[in-house]
Amino acid sequence: MADEPKVLTTVGVATFLDVGNPPTDLLRVQPGIPIDDAYEQVSVLLSYIKHLVREGDMEDDHKLLAAADYLSLLAKALMDDIEIAKNRQR
User: The pTM is what?
Assistant: First the structure.
């Protein structure tokens, strides 16, 4: 019987949204999320970011651009956490 491949999951170390002085991380990626699910969410986030940037630029709407900035921080944290998990597997 072949061993089932272990599902790679997020490690929960990547943080985002620094607040305060000195800066403190407000949010962290949740550990234990399957990598495939995390990649799917990054893809969804990137499509929203693209839309918000395009609309914010066309409408000169700084709130849309700020929302895109927050979502990009979240997407980056997810990608960072995925890469950390992959590197730990090696």
Answer: 0.87
User: How many Å is the Cα radius of gyration of the chain?
Assistant: 16
Contact 38, 78 (CB under 8 A): yes
The domain total for the chain is 1
Helix (H, G, I), strand (E, B) or coil at 46: helix
Mean pLDDT of 18-27: 92
Residue 1 lies in a domain: no
Domain contains 5: no
The pLDDT of residue 40: 97
Q: What angle do CA 14, 37, 33 make, to 5 degrees?
A: 50
The 3-state DSSP class for residue 64 equals helix
